[in-house]
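To: structure desk
From: M.T.
Subject: fold request, one chain
Message: Could you run this one when you get a chance? Sequence is below, nothing fancy, just the single chain.
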Amino acid sequence: MKEQPNTSIEAWTLLALIYRDLDDKDYRNALFLAERLYAINNQNTHYVHIYANCLFHLLDYSASYTVLKTARSIPCLNLFAKSCYELGNLEESNEKQRFYWEEGSQALRVALSMDELPEDVYWGDELASAAARHHMPSKASLCNLLGDLYVKLDNIRAAAIYYWECLKQNPYKISAYTKLCDIAPDCIDFNAAKLPEDIFTDFELATTDLSKSPHSYFPPRPSADVSEINFSEDLTSSSVEWNSFSVPDINNDYQEITVGQLRALVRYSPKVIEDDDELLHTEYERGDLEIKKNTIIDSINHDIRIMKAGEAYKNKHGLHKRPPVETTQKLKVELTQLDDDGENDYEREKDLYESIHKSTPPRVAKSKGVMDDDPRPNKKLRSVSSKVKNQAIDGYFFFNGMNQYTNLQTDESIINGMNKVLQVLCIIANGYVYQSFYHCEKAALELQKLDDPQYNSARVLCILGKAYYDAGDYQSARAFFKQAFVIAPWYCDGVPTYSTCLWFLEKEKELNVLAYKMKDNRSHLFEAYIAAGNWTKCATGSNEATQWFQKAVKLDPTRSYAHALLGYEEWEKGNSLGAKQHFAKSMIANKRSYIGWYGMATAYQGMEEYVQAKTLLFEAIRLHPRHPVLLATMAEVLYELEEYSEAVKFIEKSLAIRVSTANEKLKEKIIMKLEIEEAAETPEEEETYHDDSISL
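Reply: Done. Structure tokens follow.
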């Protein structure tokens, strides 16, 4: 194997922490750290693999599948095939199942053909597995998984071949043998094959190689000379431009993601094996017995259809009680005709797809005259021989006993790398807590400290998108959510809010592409249902949106957002009782979400029960004291309760955040009522004074 360039201490710090979390089964924290590693270099197959591995452990198979689709290392191909296996299990459509399982089998055939895969088994490595970590899957494991995929594809002949190969490589793979037993009736040569006593035989001392592999499959070694995390300058409120929503404006020179680029996410998918690859022609064909059995099954299905038709005839003529008519509407998301001719030009879609990764993320726009500074310089370390320094660094990351090279300079390098990772996590944590408490300005300014690779990651962009959304700036929120989705369409935490932004902004085409892309994501069906509901609501305004939101609630009733959306749907229909029921469920599901409290308040407001609405709005505003719509709604309720002095305070707070013509008119109404109220009190005071004057 050719020598690879060194990597940074920061990267190795992250690798060590991630593997520790994986060992501890703390997959969510491992994923958080792996996202930082992936942001450093999303082309490094070691980083890609560990990131996808975290996603896979969290059962997010769609994400691991998408991340690994273009990775061409053996570990990545192996994990990609596992993702395909699981995704096929989740599908209901036989066509989609076969699609995933065929892709998985192709990936494994590519892996098995690669020169990097060791042909021999080094038992020294296998026996050291309790103390050492393996970064290369064994040939036996690849064959075992490929056998599983061929069973799913109903290619029993090919499955048996790979199970036998698995056992030949490693007789400890007893699961391969049990699966061979399961498919034995369709394996023509099974009875003539080896018996257990022929497979699970003793190792001979003279013939067993207990040495370790001479090859290393570790990531490139760490070096103090390499830095992969840097920081941007601190920004103050006075150094940035502000928009009409009273939040930092985003710059105008970022590259806008087009609908065409979004469409490329749907229309273009990299191929595991190209059409001219000779591996396509080496797949084992199904056996004659399997084909014969399929013919029999098809015949049985034909008989069943005839029997059903006969029963339907009897029902029609009253010979049997007629079954109830099916009234359930089949919900579908279709890709609508866009501005182009609608044809799927592979090369054009490929170019658009690849251009996505060259896009620039939106950042806060700086005030005129504020110059961009270079990233904060790294602390200079005392000069020391690179060779000695790197040998010393190895001792921290490799299990090789005492480190004889340890010295003050090396310790300083290690601490510096560790602190860089800690600083990145601290910035993101700060941004998240500011967003959670609806401080959009603070969240935006804090996250600007990250360098471009860390900043242009889905989690960070979604934090910013949510912050701007909660501030009522849907246009800016859309920019962040869209960038996050196109660079990491498997990261779906922001999709419900993103789709709601698009509904508010009436971006029907973009919303359609989002919903269509999400519909096949079996790992994020809740988010897919929300996106589909918002799209149908935007496109048709029909009752179909309600049905999508109901599917989301049925799938996961513990999430408050779908309950809230259903509440608004019922309220628009004039069903006050239904709206209140859904809003109550939203509040119960998440007592700390202002959305449920505000929704319930609007329901009471519409029923002219203003005292109850006022109480609910107070809690909603306590949870989110900076939302202009909440503040304006409270002013409306106080106006109806004739509490004009308090109403003025709330409407002025709302207008200070966001200027609105409707709210300006509301303020005028409130002030007019307040002046009338004050005028009604003034004559009485003047009259009293006049009487006193006469008496004098």
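Reply (cont.): The longest strand covers residues 7-8. Let me know if you need anything else for the meeting.
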